[in-house]
Design goal:
Number of domains: 1
Number of strands: 0
CATH class: Mainly Alpha
Helix content: 55-70%
CATH superfamily: lambda repressor-like DNA-binding domains
Number of helices: 6
CATH topology: 434 Repressor (Amino-terminal Domain)
Largest sheet: none
Shape: globular
CATH architecture: Orthogonal Bundle
Distance between the termini: 11 Å
Radius of gyration: 13 Å
Length: about 80
């Protein structure tokens, strides 16, 4: 599974929340959040995802689409 970082950032922008503000709300340093976003969101913890859902806010559907999307490359290989 892969985080849809573009959709996450678009959702943040639509709700008027920047990276520094979100980082503060979820209890991480802004540089850490920038690094995790730059790495494709692969290192987000479950706790961070839950806190982002509250801070942005994201519906369960939004969160599933953003954080639990399945990369079609893996599906082609039968994984």
């Amino acid at each position: 599974m892969k985080t849809n970082v573009k959709e996450l950032v678009d959702m943040m922008k639509s709700k008027g929340i920047g990276v520094p503000e979100l980082a503060q709300k979820i209890g991480v340093d802004a540089s850490t959040l920038y690094r995790k976003l730059g790495a494709g969101g692969e290192k987000f913890t479950i706790g961070e995802v839950h806190r982002m859902m509250e801070a942005i806010p994201l519906s369960n559907e939004d969160a599933n689409r953003i954080f639990l999307s399945i990369n079609s490359h893996y599906c082609e290989k039968g994984a």
